[in-house]
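User: My advisor asked me to double-check a structure prediction for Acyl-CoA dehydrogenase before group meeting. I don't want to rely on an old file, so could you generate it fresh from this sequence?
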Amino acid sequence: MRRDLFDEEHLLFRETVREFLTREVVPHHAQWEKDGIVPREVWKKAGELGMFGFSVPEEFGGAGITDFRYNAVVLEEITRIGATGLGFSLHNDVMAPYFVDLTNDEQKQRWLPGFASGELITAIAMTEPGAGSDLQGIRTTALREGDHYVVNGQKTFITNGINSDLVVVVAKTDPAAGARGTTLLVVERGMEGFSRGRNLEKIGMHAQDTAELFFENVRVPVANRLGDEDGQGFVQLMHNLPQERLSIAVGGVAAAESVLETTIEYCRNRKAFGKNIGQFQNTRFLLAELATEVEIARHYVDKCIVALNAGELTAVDAAKAKWWTTELQTKVIDRCLQLHGGYGYMLEYPVAKAWLDSRVQTIYGGTTEIMKEIIGRSFGF
Ligand SMILES: Cc1cc2nc3c(=O)[nH]c(=O)nc-3n(C[C@H](O)[C@H](O)[C@H](O)COP(=O)(O)OP(=O)(O)OC[C@H]3O[C@@H](n4cnc5c(N)ncnc54)[C@H](O)[C@@H]3O)c2cc1C
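Assistant: Sure, here is a fresh prediction for Acyl-CoA dehydrogenase from the sequence you gave:
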């Protein structure tokens, strides 16, 4: 079915992004996988091209357009080439609402130009060694002392953890108040007492810097708090998580589509028992099932993008998109790997890397089980 989500300008932008990635990313990504990190220069080059902060107002160097279709274009193109090291979607899709919607004028002036130019890389630090799904269980504290908060604690699994300049840290300003005592603070590179731990070794996404962060008596000015008062952090997180989950779903469908496409090509060419393997009924039925599911997923996710643009995407709809598309993604890639036989197990074949890179999709941004909890709760049992 024809995809009618995009207008002419999105299609033109897609060509620009594709050309940029072909030139600046494809030739280097394998090396970045070995390095465990993407160089900052590629962020700056992407920023020059206008790939960041679409919703950042023009006066601060952005495009001033709130249209998630542009975010989708960037993420789909990155996914198509398997450049899972680029933490652009975390910056664009997840962090932009924190920096654009929750900042005051003074903060906008300080941070938004760098956000849009790619000179200030962002991250969000929710997860701790002892608390992931159960965010209310976080133990990092930010206790007020005059016009500063003193931050103590530890975070883990933080995307862009090494490269980031601005980290939105979820901390308890009133540890006795539960979720209502949670506040978001922007911790900046170089603040005394803020250090990075290991760039964690993962099973996939090897070029992505995912790190531990440590905070030891870090004095964060009150001027770095997101929002007007203490204790708003949980509400702010709950407001922004649907967009994060939709972003993961967009990536999930794009990855499944891309692997399916290369697998169909593989099945056209690979021979066994005197036939192309695509001529076996089992192969055709399997590909038929996967192609059907991916296309249905695509249309649901596109509807979610339209709903997000209209301010109507609910937490439940985003949870449905997130769990279903990412479970589908891992299934599609696993089945496609099987169709590659032994070659599917070889890292030189894109399907093998996709299999490793995709595994985390059902985990981060809220696990499949947590998504089902969110949906299940909506029935009001
Ligand atoms: C590569 C990577 C990048 C990440 N990036 C970031 C980031 O940038 N910022 C950030 O803050 N975090 C990040 N995370 C953390 C991620 O969001 C968490 O790992 C995830 O939310 C799960 O938390 P957990 O690992 O503590 O698992 P746990 O919460 O310990 O869950 C373990 C298992 O128990 C299940 N479970 C938990 N609670 C329930 C329940 N109520 N009902 C049923 N089952 C349940 C889970 O579904 C899971 O299967 C990242 C993680 C990875 C791996």
